[in-house]
Amino acid sequence: MKVLIVGGGGREHAIAWKVAQSKRVDKIYCAPGNAGIAEYAECVNIGAMEFDKLLAFAKDNSIDLTIIGMDDPLVGGIVDVFEAEGLRVFGPRRNAAILEGSKAFSKDLMKKYNIPSAGYETFTSAEEAMKFLETSKYPTVLKADGLALGKGVLICNTKQEAMDGVKSIMLDKQFGSAGNTLVVEEFMTGREVSVLSFVDGDTIKIMTSAQDHKRAKDGDQGLNTGGMGTFSPSPFYTEEVDAFCNKYVYQASVDAMKSEGRTFKGIIFFGLMLTSEGPKVLEYNARFGDPETQVVLPRMINDIVDVFEACIDGKLADIELEFEDNAAVCVVLASDGYPEHYEKGFEITGFENFKNKEGYYVFHAGSKFDEEGKIVTNGGRVLGVTAKGANLKEARANAYEATKLIHFDNKYMRNDIGKAIDEA
């Protein structure tokens, strides 16, 4: 098989690494890819939103399967474009990707189908939103309706913070058109857990659990980011939680989408909050999480291409997902200053330390080759250093030890990824 992966971050690197292990695959392309993905795939200089060019490339190169890694092209309808031309593509169609593309849509869906979630109100007028916030309970949560690179959520502790948040999202357009509609949501407390799943329109198969760390600084301080690290499995995702979510969340979400005429095939990422009242859905995503993928896929035993094809063909019920009985931790090495202002172009060294080092991985998120062929930093999140271990504490110790093997100027990381493990 020839496979095309669309995207260029750490998630896509992990997908490329996993696809490369399939005995069914001879050639992998990635558009646009990055310096790390180049180890497994031929990188093609086409952007993820250049649908016509991607389609032409897939046709010209007889691509057997295209895998969409990113949210933007999914919400933009790339799957519809490829399917219209008879090409096999993994990911939800445009009318199903709205599950992530509009928080207002997903909140309305959960309300309609009694899927447990936080209370909320939706606004298209900043004036109306501010009026509502005058009498709200605090803390409260503001969410830009559309895609905002994982950063369109503000937790506001005071009325003034909330007013400022409405201004930045709806009036100053901090997240562009994503902020045309605003969701004001009840603040929930509890443990967050990420659960990825494969879906074929009818059947849903849950992967192993994970937990992300969104804030930029230690102790969950600082601004929201795309994710500073993650671990898998979550010790807080118990059999009791699993049973509840299987009954009230997972299949219910798939069936709800089908009932709405929006049959979902691809990945549903469930962001869960384990509250004192039971698990509730924080958010849906319509693709693999980043950096959750970097700890989930290294533990997956299945040939991932078999699973992708089963989703496309409606045969997921025939697949038994298998995961190793171990743990993995990923620590993101970022450029100092992320997610605001940071410098790029610093040489990265130390990759040779990971050659033939079983259970240790470096997934590139923001890297590229410079004119001299050296690998240099090219983003806020630069690398995800992942390590496995017999248990979470061992995996965490291994991951942090491994971060010492990689060097670049301006290197920054959180030092408390997985610290919650100690409290489990």
User: What's the Cα radius of gyration?
Assistant: 21 Å
Class of secondary structure makeup = alpha+beta
Helix content: 25-40%
Main sheet: strands, sense, barrel: 9 strands, antiparallel
Q: Give the name of the CATH superfamily of the largest domain.
A: ATP-grasp fold, B domain
From the spread of the alpha carbons, the general shape counts as globular
Tell me the quaternary state.
Answer: single chain
Tell me the β content: 25-35%
| Tally of domains | 4
CATH class label of the largest domain: Alpha Beta
Q: Tell me the CATH topology of the largest domain.
A: D-amino Acid Aminotransferase, Chain A, domain 1
Low-confidence stretches: none
Keywords: ATP-binding, Ligase, Manganese, Metal-binding, Nucleotide-binding, Purine biosynthesis
EC number: 6.3.4.13
GO molecular function: ATP binding; metal ion binding; phosphoribosylamine-glycine ligase activity
Catalytic activity: 5-phospho-beta-D-ribosylamine + glycine + ATP = N(1)-(5-phospho-beta-D-ribosyl)glycinamide + ADP + phosphate + H(+)
Features:
about 425 residues; alpha+beta; Rossmann fold; Dna Ligase, domain 1; D-amino Acid Aminotransferase, Chain A, domain 1; 9-stranded antiparallel sheet; 5-stranded parallel sheet; 12 helices
Describe, in plain words, how this protein is organized in 3D:
- Helix 7 (126-133) packs antiparallel against helix 8.
- Helix content is 28%, strand content 28%.
- A hairpin with a 2-residue loop joins strand 15 (265-275) and strand 16 (278-285).
- Strands 10, 11, 14, 15, 16, 17, 18, 21 and 22 form a 9-stranded antiparallel β-sheet that branches. Strands 3-2-1-4-5 form a 5-stranded parallel β-sheet, with helices on both faces.
- The chain contains 12 helices and 22 strands.
- It is α+β, with helices and mostly antiparallel strands and 424 residues long.
- The protein has helices at residues 10-19, 51-60, 71-76, 78-84, 94-101, 103-112, 126-133, 159-171, 239-259, 293-296, 304-313, 392-403; strands at 2-7, 27-32, 42-43, 65-68, 89-90, 120-123, 140-144, 153-156, 182-186, 191-200, 204-212, 215-217, 221-224, 229-232, 265-275, 278-285, 327-335, 360-364, 367-369, 375-377, 381-389, 411-412.
- It folds into 4 domains: 2-95, Rossmann fold; 119-186, ATP-grasp fold, A domain (Dna Ligase, domain 1), CATH 3.30.1490; 191-318, ATP-grasp fold, B domain (D-amino Acid Aminotransferase, Chain A, domain 1), CATH 3.30.470; 327-423, Phosphoribosylglycinamide synthetase, C-terminal domain (Glycinamide Ribonucleotide Synthetase, Chain A, domain 4).
